[in-house]
Amino acid sequence: MAALDTIRTLLPRELRRRAASLSELLALLPHVKNPLVLGEMVPSLARGMLLGQARLGESASMVSGHGAHFLWSYDSDFPELRELYRQAKQSQWDSESALDWSLDVDPLDPERALLPRSFFPVEGLAAMGVTLSEAEQRRFIHSMTAWMLSQFLHGEQGALFAAAQVTESVGWMDAKLYGSTQVVDEGRHVETFHRYLATKLEKLYTVNDNLFVIIDALITDPRWDMKFLGMQIMIEGLALGAFGTLYRLTREPLLRELLGYVIRDEARHVAFGVIALRDHLARLSERERREREDWAFEVALLMRNRFLVHEVYEEWFEGSFSRRRWNELVSASPGMREFRSVMFARLIPNLRYIGLMPERVQRRYEAAGMMQFFEGAHAAELSGERLLAELTHGPSTLPPSE
Ligand SMILES: [Fe+2]
Ligand SMILES: [Fe+2]
Domain for residue 108, yes or no? Predict the structure, then answer.
């Protein structure tokens, strides 16, 4: 391993990145239970990790083979989704007027810290022989927070496109009407996160390779219910967990307010996902359902340790210690552990509710340490308000301040 690390340091940065991505991918292979799932993702993995398309140029094009499905009766055909559509129309907000953009944000102000120091692997850096001064620690936290919010922003763009695609493809009129509100919601999230990053944090990172691969796989998949499962349940579940953690821990008032608005919308999106998929999956054949059970588990595994903040490592510590040691440091940091825990606390009950966790796959989740969340509340019974109340008063493994 050490010899490989040495060879890697001799390569140009872009090649180093790709070699690192490839070796991390290879390290995942022994954990894969159904190679077919990974096989389906090979084109996206190649585009994201080998060709590095996420960082080539100002834009990326993806081709999708999904079909647009027209309905000519226009009658209401899914009362629960019609009700969600009604709620969504009444809950629209305008980022320009709802948020106080005149608030001055100083990302380095310890009194209104973006995130507590304990969230990040600051302590572990000392063991790597790196000591950061007080001012450097604040700048490091600024970089890490900007990286996370940048990935949220790119994820929101993926959610915007996926919502539009699902709106075209889905077979219920009420789901199309609901989907139209989600498209507006996601557009507003893109606008809001971008404005915060550009004008308040003044820092924007490119899309992470792993996130690019997942988005690419969902946007190019021709099956609407796979896009839906991947985006509404897996990615939105992850986002909701991450937004919730940040909402609870940040002391920066504008960021907290912004996240509160976004969380209310996202809670509705995940509810849309579980209500529609529960009904849809119950109608599939045994073979089709098994395929989706396997797919969900593999994607959950892929997502678990995939966000290792390499761009910040390259900016701050490349040359000081190896990428492998950074991976270990980030994976074990209190913040990342909290993210993982909250993310699966949201995801597992939803997979159970939609019928993708029969005993056959429960054993795999058990082995991966994710079954502790099995009995949690699913999205259809968790409103945005209840989520926010839980985040403000509920249990967590991290203190809300330093
Ligand atoms: Fe969103
Ligand atoms: Fe969303």
Answer: yes
Does 377 reside within a domain? yes
Instruction: Identify whether the C-beta of residue 365 lies closer than 8 Å to the C-beta of residue 298.
Output: no
Q: Is 383 exposed, middle or buried (0-12, 13-18, 19+ CB in 10 A)?
A: middle
Domain count, the chain: 1
In this predicted model, what pLDDT tens digit does every residue of 204-225 receive, in sequence order?
999 988 888 889 989 999 998 9
Distance 155 CA to ligand 1 centre (A): 8
**CA–centroid distance, residue 265 to ligand 1 (Å):** 7
| CA–centroid distance, residue 290 to ligand 2 (Å) | 26
Span from the CA of 152 to the centroid of ligand 1 (angstroms)? 8
Total-model pTM: 0.89
Give 280-294 pLDDT, tens digit per residue. 999 999 999 999 999
Domain hosting residue 202, numbered range: 32-54+78-393
Whole-number Å distance, alpha carbon 158 to ligand 1 midpoint, is: 9
CATH number, domain with residue 307: 1.10.620.20
- With left for phi above 0 and alpha for psi between -120 and 50, is residue 367 left, alpha or beta? alpha
Residue 264 Cα to ligand 2 middle (Å) = 10
Q: Is residue 7 part of a domain?
A: no
